Amino acid sequence: MMFAKKAEFVVSNTDLKYLPEPNKPEYAFIGRSNVGKSSLINCLCNNKRLAKTSSTPGKTQLINHFMIDDEWYLVDLPGYGYTKTPLHVKRKWENFTRNYLRSRENLMCVFLLIDCRHKPQKIDLDFMTWLGENQIPFVITFTKIDKLSSSQLQKNVKAYSSKLYESWEFLPRIFKTSAENKVGNEEIFGFVKETNKMF
Q1: Residue 53 and residue 139: Cα distance in Å, rounded?
Q2: Distance, CA of 194 to CA of 137 (rounded, Å)
Q3: pLDDT at position 169, please?
Q4: Where are the alpha helices (DSSP H) in the chain?
Q5: Strand 174-176 versus strand 63-68 pairing type
Q6: How many structural domains compose the chain?
Q7: Ranges of the chain with pLDDT below 70
Q8: How high is the pLDDT of residue 51?
Q9: Are 44 and 185 in contact (CB under 8 A)?
Q10: 27 domain-assigned
Q11: Phi-psi region of 141 (alpha: psi -120 to 50; beta: other; left: phi over 0)
Q12: Each residue of 54-76: b (16+ CB within 10 Å) or e?
């Protein structure tokens, strides 16, 4: 099983001026609140306490940078969608998150996390459209695949792909992950390693 050999917290903030120097490739992780983002990050890094996990959506409120194996940055971004957070705070999160995604020059790819148990959600599809319009590369990362049978997973992924083909000519790469069973790590690290060559 593949994990990060070394994962170090670097900085948390909302001001783009104080992000780390863009001298290494960077990968951002984002998804709807409660999609299992922190659990997946902790699984990839083999550290249950690296990213804050919670049963309450909206735990991540800052742009969090982690240095992985002294080679690349993993960025944990605030989730979008339902939380009990006041609307003005959520808008603030959205503004600095989207500013980061549009302006970060060393951002190689966004890992857009989708809970495999649900039908295609408008909020996710709209966010994909926004990424496409802003020419920000992204891959789809289905989470919590341990919660479904293989046949149901295949059915849900196919339904999602069919929905995407309604508005996309080509689909982004798709990963299937389970933080519980540590599935998907090898594929993600292989993708990062290949993509880093383009930096």
Answers
A1: 22
A2: 14
A3: 92
A4: 37-45, 87-103, 122-133, 150-164, 185-196
A5: unpaired
A6: 1
A7: 1, 52-60, 82-85, 87-90
A8: 78
A9: yes
A10: yes
A11: beta
A12: eeebbbbbebbbbbbeeebbbbb
The CATH code of the domain that includes 61 is: 3.40.50.300
The three-state secondary structure class of 164 is helix
* Whether 39 contacts 147, CB under 8 Å: no
What length does the chain have? 199
Q: Looking up tokens 């289905």, which residue turns up?
A: 142
Check: CB of residue 10 under 8 Å from CB of residue 63.
Answer: no
Q: Domain span at residue 172? A: 7-196
How many other CB atoms sit within 10 Å of the CB of residue 80? Answer: 22
Residues with Cβ < 8 Å from 26, sequence gap 6 or more?
A: 72, 73, 74, 75, 104, 106, 107, 108
Phi/psi of residue 79, nearest 5 degrees: -75, 165
Q: What is the DSSP string of 66-110?
A: EEETTTEEEEEPPPBS--SS-HHHHHHHHHHHHHHHHH-TTEEEE
Distance CA 88, CA 95 (A): 11
Instruction: Extract the tokens encoding 18.
Output: 């104080």
Instruction: Find how far residue 106's CA is from the centre of its chain.
Output: 16
Asked if residue 2 is part of any domain, the answer here is no
| pLDDT given for residue 55 in this prediction | 44
Chain segment 87-104, per-residue pLDDT in tens: 666 677 788 999 999 999
